[in-house]
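HOLO CASE FILE
Compound: nicotinamide-adenine-dinucleotide
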Amino acid sequence: MKIIVYSSKPYDRKFLDEANRSFAHELEYCSWPLTPQTVRTADNKPCVCVFVHDQLTRAVLTSLKAGGCELIALRCAGFNNVDLKAAAELGLAVVRVPAYSPESVAEHTVGLMLTLSRKTHRAYNRVRDGNFSLDGLLGFELHGKTVGIIGTGRIGAAVARILNGFGAHILGVDISPNEVCTRLGVRYAGLEELYREADIISLHCPLTPETRHLIDEAALGKMKTGVMLINTSRGAVVDTDAVIRSLKSGKLGYLGLDVYEQEEHLFFEDLSDAIITDDVFERLLTFPNVLITGHQAFFTVEAMRSIAQTTMDNIHQYEQTGTCENLIRL
Ligand code: NAD
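Model generated. Tokens follow.
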């Protein structure tokens, strides 16, 4: 199949080429994202392969269909950037990679927790500067703390499994509780209880109309003073302005982000020589108790290999049978 691969970086090409060896699809890589301005580059390609920041709006999907596209293959689990209703109406199939090493994101999540709780991000710079003072580096232990996990699916469960080893108590919130988590000793609760009890809150639900700005002023107001909030799910689950106000007041004690509401203007690019005009993002960077990574939680060899393999398998399955086990249904 002819496949155009948008937003592709050298590392995407490496893993996709490797996975394509047993299929021999015709891959055309472009570094630019799929947008209303670039959509015509997909003309005459039956398959479009995209990532988290590609814009699959109704207008873009309509142009894709007109250009001969049949299949949209997401190289990710989340699909909040796709207008699924429009895709269904246009008869475009959308497939995704539902599970690829949830441990990649879970381990990064716990890494953010430990870095913030032990202030290693600050210690790293101090020691390099010959400053061996411990003032300001007093940490806290995860052992015995209550961690609230919102969204106890594959990644949430992997986080729970790791935190079990630390001796943390785990509260879960989910619209559909997970047996695996119950067996791990996760106690399901309501959001109110989780906000009230948790010392650390970690977000692992998808971005949906229901979860957009789930963590807003009101939610933050119900949390413990000094709580740690970790978001490795999708940026807009958190209301960034509300979080900044909460950090300024001291209510929010620690913030670890791998995702950010406006990240498509920043992440995955080297902007070290550019002037960043996003003042909200720049404000976040000024807090000593905020740690941000640029959507890298998934970025391990194991996950990249698995994403590439599943993407190629999805395309092959669709080409052979006209359907796919990883088809997203409305
Ligand atoms: P999953 O589908 O296995 O789990 C999501 C869980 O959230 C499900 O159990 C679901 O029932 C629950 N949920 C849905 N709506 C909810 C709500 N309103 N309140 C509470 N729970 C709700 O997905 P996953 O593989 O665990 O991934 C979770 C999210 O992580 C993805 O949607 C994606 O946005 C994000 N993600 C981020 C990265 C990264 O690199 N930072 C990588 C992969 C996935």
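CASE NOTES: Residues 77-78, 102, 105, 150-156, 173-176, 178, 204-208, 210-211, 232-234, 258-259, 295, 297-298 surround nicotinamide-adenine-dinucleotide (CB under 6 Å). The first helix runs from residue 10 to 20.
CLOSED: yes
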